[in-house]
Amino acid sequence: MDKQARADHIVEILEGYYPETPVPLDHKDPYTLLVSVLLSAQCTDARVNKTTPALWELADNPYDMMRVSVPEIKAIIRPCGLSPRKSQAIYDLSHIIMEEHDGEVPQSFEALEALPGVGHKTASVVMAQAFGVPAFPVDTHIHRLAYRWCLSTGKNVDKTEKDLKRLFAKELWNKLHLQIIFFGREYCPARGHDMKTCPICSLYGRKSLMK
Fold this sequence. Notes:
The structure is a single chain. This protein is an all-alpha fold. The chain folds into 2 domains: 93 residues, Orthogonal Bundle (Endonuclease Iii, domain 2); 100 residues, Orthogonal Bundle (Endonuclease III, domain 1). Helices cover 58% and strands 0% of the residues. It has 12 helices and no strands. The protein is elongated, with a radius of gyration of 18 Å.
């Protein structure tokens, strides 16, 4: 079976397991999603969702966030890790959104990636999940599974993103990246994984990784 046929079958398998893909980060608008995704760097979605209610009580929009202090933000988001850097980024990007974007989260990759603490992956999540623009956010988990399933060479996340975008139709990207994340968490973890019993690895797992 060639790579495209393998990719098409993987889509069918994932659709069977996850026909619905709710956004795993709790949010109510593009701004709260942006901040939540920023907080999720090197942190679990579950931890972010436990932390953000207190942050939203402090400020849930860029106007209010720019009026609180970095130490106040830092004290709340400490459980998410990297709090010095993340708190400063949240404060700074709130100022920029107010001053340069009329208080609205910008709807372009270029403008999002220009915000403090926002890289390509974070921008891709916001574009996909807040604005419905086709994107394929590749985090370390998707990067790992794409290599494990022989969909990419695994050289780096940029290469993996390009490989996956070539294999999958654009209209599938926004849902598919969540399906892969959900499947990885439940059935295809990084450690202690038996590839021979995995619904996808058993069919398409990289032979060199098989135990």
